[in-house]
Design a protein that fits this description.
A hairpin with a 2-residue loop joins strand 4 and strand 5. This protein folds into 2 domains: 251 residues, Rossmann fold, CATH 3.40.50.2000; 185 residues, Glycogen Phosphorylase B (Rossmann fold, 3-Layer(aba) Sandwich), CATH 3.40.50. The chain contains 18 helices and 18 strands. It has a 9-stranded mixed β-sheet, with helices on both faces. A 6-stranded parallel β-sheet has the order 15-14-13-16-17-18, sandwiched between helices. The longest helix is centred in the first third of the chain and has 16 residues. The protein is of the alpha/beta class. The chain binds adenosine-5'-diphosphate. Adenosine-5'-diphosphate binds next to helix 1, strand 13, strand 14 and helix 12.
């Protein structure tokens, strides 16, 4: 079956976070399950430059203020449709913000255009491609189910694909002023609770959550969390009413890109059966960060956006405890200036013990995974999280907050998990400095028992973190949706607000 994936970033062409990793890895994994996935992405310079053998398959005279065309070609092994619209996407740098970090002022038009192109492809605009499902990722693709829905109202006889909406992070919802409705090509009737309206404006993600046949998010625990007032970020009420079509499918990682047995970024390669190479990687990493050699010191690592979500202010506060355990830390990340400054200052105050690199560096991320003893992920919320999955595969023992996908992917080293040989890391809750410090102490205690530590590493490295199982779940979901089973009989209609209000009794 054919599926169209609609996404605003895709590895290795353009990436700001885990969304790109997921979008880049899913198509190959799905091919093994008989799904032909093509991906529609904005025609950023990095995408157009990489596109090989591209042909224009569909012209649009006017789309969000200018002419556009849909190109079809291949890049980095991906089967891509690129929306070539220079007035929207021919801009340097980050896909969402300008050089000063401000959102592009026309982001509503830019990503509405992507969604309109998705609806056209879904409606059969490109010869030889008639997807049974359009799979929209995050708010940037959230209007795709809306355009499909309203097109189906206009032409009910046409066959339309089913829509799947995946939430990679509910914190980003794409809310814009209501007066844009007409210029985004949506009918006036769309501005309702049953449509795109969200808190008096237009909510791109909200629209997708309301109008897609099925909703997924990237872990079962996050699926439960986002339907609660605490985790729902204003959309809990809507998600509760759609609970019967909401599910969590864990992310995997690309095990070819993340393969310690063949990783060109490592000083020495290693495997679960032959982990000795980790020693050379740890030495090389410490040298790179100017840390003192002391092989007996437990080396923690962090690879992360530096933001409130990731809980790294808690780690900053917990550093004295980490240092009191004679441990060391390397951190790679960028984001919040206060956190960048805080960690840089901590490194300056503890030379040889804390090493910090501010920035984004794919190769260094691999070196850190291959060289640290433990990876810290103290997130306040985490839809799935990818770095802990890479850590498992690379033998870096994850120390994580017990939230979202971190809860679903790491087996805490409690008594029973240790007894049955299942433990892969350390979890802590609640997400506070004190609990994080306790987790650091637990890790340090385990580190002092080399046999126990090796067992944790081995368990982690043998965990299947590939896309194989998740891709099978997506393939099954697509088939259900394409066969018209998307709306199950138990689904309640959405009647009232989307702000955590209980739904009204469904009509009979
Ligand atoms: P999120 O998408 O919320 O940022 P994830 O854990 O889902 O977090 O995915 C983050 C991805 O980005 C991982 O592949 C991680 O290795 C990578 N990453 C994050 N920060 C950096 C950085 N500073 N340098 C290199 N890679 C990074």
């Amino acid at each position: 079956m054919q599926v169209l994936s609609v996404v605003s970033e895709i590895y290795p062409l353009i990436k700001t976070g885990g969304l790109a990793d997921v979008a880049g890895a899913l198509p190959a994994a799905l091919a093994r399950h008989g799904v032909e996935m093509r991906s529609l992405v904005p025609g950023y310079p990095a995408v157009l430059d990489a596109l090989e053998g591209s042909k224009s398959v569909h012209d649009i005279a006017a789309l969000s203020g200018g002419p556009a065309r849909i190109l079809h070609g291949r890049a980095a092994g991906l089967d891509l449709y690129a929306l070539d619209a220079p007035h929207l996407y021919r801009r340097p740098g980050n896909p969402y913000v300008d050089a000063t970090g401000q959102d592009w002022p026309d982001n509503a038009e830019r990503f509405a255009a992507l969604c309109q192109a998705a609806a056209r492809l879904g409606g059969g605009a490109a010869a030889g491609f008639s997807p049974g499902v359009v799979h929209a990722h995050d708010w940037q693709a959230g209007l795709a189910p809306a355009y499909l829905h309203y097109a189906a109202q206009d032409a009910p006889e046409a066959s339309r694909p089913g829509a799947v909406m995946t939430v990679h992070n509910l914190a980003f919802q794409g809310r814009f002023p209501a007066h844009l409705l007409g210029s985004l090509g949506l009918p006036a009737s769309a501005c309702s609770l049953e449509g795109v309206e969200s808190f008096g404006g237009i909510g791109f993600l909200k629209a997708g959550l309301r109008l897609a046949a099925r909703i997924t998010t990237v872990s079962p625990t996050y699926a439960a969390e986002i339907a609660t007032p605490d985790g729902g970020m204003g959309l809990a009420g809507l998600l509760q009413t759609r609970a019967s079509v909401l599910s969590g499918i864990l992310n995997g990682i690309d095990t070819d890109v993340w393969d310690p047995g063949a990783d060109p970024h490592l000083a020495a390669r290693f495997t679960a059966d032959r982990p000795q190479g980790r020693g050379a990687n740890k030495r090389a990493l410490k040298e790179r960060f100017g840390l003192s050699p002391r092989p007996e010191a437990l080396l923690f690592g962090v690879i992360s956006r530096l933001s409130w979500q990731k809980g790294l202010d808690l780690l900053l506060a917990a550093l004295p405890r980490l240092l009191a355990e004679s441990a060391q830390l390397v951190l790679l990340g960028s984001g919040d200036p206060a956190l960048e400054q805080g960690f840089s200052a901590a490194a300056a105050a503890a030379p040889g013990r804390i090493g910090v690199q501010i920035g984004y560096d794919e190769g260094l991320a691999h070196m850190i995974q291959g060289g640290v003893d433990a990876l810290l992920v103290p997130s306040r919320f985490e839809p799935c999280g990818l770095t802990q999955l890479c850590a498992l595969r690379y033998g870096a023992v994850p120390v994580v907050a017990r939230v979202g996908g971190l809860n679903d992917t790491i087996v805490d080293a409690n008594e029973m998990a240790l007894a049955v040989g299942a433990a892969t890391g350390f979890q802590f809750a609640p997400v506070t400095r004190e609990a994080l410090e306790q987790a650091i102490l637990r890790a340090a205690a385990a580190w002092r028992d080399p046999g126990a530590w090796r067992q944790l590493q081995r368990n982690g490295m043998r965990t299947d973190v590939s896309w194989s199982r998740p891709a099978g779940k997506y393939a099954a979901l697509y088939r259900e949706v394409a066969e018209g089973l998307g709306k199950r009989s138990g689904e309640r209609d959405f009647m009232v607000g989307d702000a955590g209000i209980e739904p009204a009794t469904p009509p009979v």
